[in-house]
Amino acid sequence: MASRTTRRPNEFRVVELILGAVMEAGLEGAEAALHYRMVADSLLAYVGQQAAYFLFDAEARAADESAWTREYRLVDPRAFPNITRLSTELAEVADEQIFEATVGALISAIEKRAETLRGA
């Protein structure tokens, strides 16, 4: 489902669930449809990226994961001052944190849009 529309009952259940949540938050019509697609496409892209990553062999995954603690800490600080400043923090970010932050940002965007429409 990450790269296509399956048109299957489980897909319909997920779409129904997310649409219901978006409408419960206060969005209707085109706004609800747009924000559903924003949530679905963002989460499916993330899940698809994760699934593709796990297709790599363990050695390739280990090299990618260790890059945050090796190569990113060795960059030229004059050329990459922001990476240098946050290299420790970049290495400490976990996949679960990324997922939770993404979901939180999507929920906040929906809530903010609903508030804006109520105030209009």
Secondary-structure topology with pairs:
Layout: H1 9-24, H2 29-53, H3 58-67, H4 81-92, H5 95-119
Helix pairs in contact: 1-2, 2-5
Q: If you had to describe this structure to a student in words, what would you say it looks like?
A:
This is Tetracycline repressor TetR C-terminal domain-containing protein. This protein has 120 residues and is an all-alpha fold. Helix content is 73%, strand content 0%. The protein has five helices and no strands. Helix 1 crosses helix 2 and helix 2 runs antiparallel to helix 5. The longest helix is centred in the middle third of the chain and has 25 residues. The radius of gyration is 19 Å and the shape is flat.
Provide a quick synopsis of the model.
The chain is mainly alpha-helical. It has helices spanning 9-24, 29-53, 58-67, 81-92, 95-119.
Which keywords apply here?
flat; 5 helices; mainly alpha; 120 residues; Tetracycline repressor TetR C-terminal domain-containing protein
